[in-house]
Amino acid sequence: MTCLGQCSPMHSEDVVAGAYAVIVQRYVRFPFPDDRFPEDLGAVIHRTVLDGQRPARYVGHTIDNDWVVGDGVDDPNTDAACVVAHIAHVVGLDPSVGGLATLPIGFEARRPSTEAVWEIEPFTYLGDDERFVATDE
What we know:
Strand content: 15-25%
Shape: globular
Order of helices and strands: EEEHEEEHEE
Strand order of the largest sheet: 6-3-5-4-7-8
Number of strands: 8
Distance between the termini: 33 Å
Largest sheet: 6 strands, mixed
Oligomer: single chain
């Protein structure tokens, strides 16, 4: 897969829709060296987080060892709401997300606002009738 975030041109010469196409890795051995996200680690990321419109309020490390980053407000299941990109882009916008690189497989972190601490709990999929909405919006 290729990153749809704003990757540096030093990583690739291929440009796709105004973004540099750089390979993202889905399967990276966990735990990570130095407890830091690898630069090439991909995640499913809410576009609103990736473009800086909203902060990350949700980070999930699924039981399949995938990473998910959401804004906690908008529905991630709508068309084009999420993209695959390097999680490093999110860490660049919000360094506190980098502190979640040790989040165990099968856990998720949530916070109602950027001023709040991340609350970590076992990962669960929401039911069809449940909405993921932050408390401060």
